[in-house]
Amino acid sequence: MKRKLFLALFFCFIISFKIYSQEDKHPIDVYLDSCMEINPSTEGMVRCTDEAIKMWDNELNKFYKLLIKTLDGESVNILKSAQVEWIVFRDKEFANIENIYSRKEGTMYIPMQLFSRLEIIKARALQLQDYYELLTEN
């Protein structure tokens, strides 16, 4: 009896943890996870990651534009300058990622390389979102 009760509680814990963890995830991350579950092949992972990269890039641009509207003249110039420098960094980091992964053989490194690129864009998008939310909180 205790074993059945333990298993039931454990099962409820696992389900609630999975639901809670999905709620904590950004919708783009939830999309990526579910997309890869549908098609876990290399081609599927590449397609899913490419789509998620586009989604994160859109998110980045959305918060960049919102920040521009929120800031004053000099602050806008500082943000624009920082974004130009970030794009230079991004491009150099993408070249670095390409260089690192090109040394590896096997198709599994293709989605890994794309995921590394995704993480660069995602980090900047979330950073801009944090800035915007900080400036617009009540």
Summarize the structure.
The protein is built from 5 helices and no strands. It is mainly α and 138 residues long. It has one domain (26-136): Substrate Binding Domain Of Dnak, Chain:A, Domain 2, CATH 1.20.1270.
Overview of the molecule:
The protein has a single domain, classed as Substrate Binding Domain Of Dnak, Chain:A, Domain 2 (Up-down Bundle), CATH 1.20.1270. The protein has 5 helices and no strands. The chain has helices spanning 2-24, 27-38, 42-70, 73-101, 109-136. The longest helix is centred in the middle third of the chain and has 29 residues, at 42-70. The termini are far apart. Residues 5-9 have low confidence and may be disordered.
What does the secondary structure layout of this molecule look like, with pairings?
Elements: H1 2-24, H2 27-38, H3 42-70, H4 73-101, H5 109-136
Keywords, please?
single chain; 138 residues; mainly alpha; Substrate Binding Domain Of Dnak, Chain:A, Domain 2; 88% helix
Provide the β-strand percentage band: under 5%
Q: What string gives the helices and strands in order?
A: HHHHH
Mean pLDDT: 88
Q: Architecture in CATH?
A: Up-down Bundle
Look at the helices and sheets and give the structural class: mainly alpha
Oligomeric composition of the shown chains:
single chain
The name CATH uses for the topology is Substrate Binding Domain Of Dnak, Chain:A, Domain 2
Outline type? flat
Rg (C-alpha, Å):
20 Å
Distance from first to last alpha carbon: 52 Å
Instruction: Please give the domain count.
Output: 1
Total strand segments: 0
Largest sheet: none
**Which percent range fits the helix content?**
over 70%
CATH class: Mainly Alpha
- pLDDT under 50 segments (min length 5)? 5-9
Count of helical regions: 5
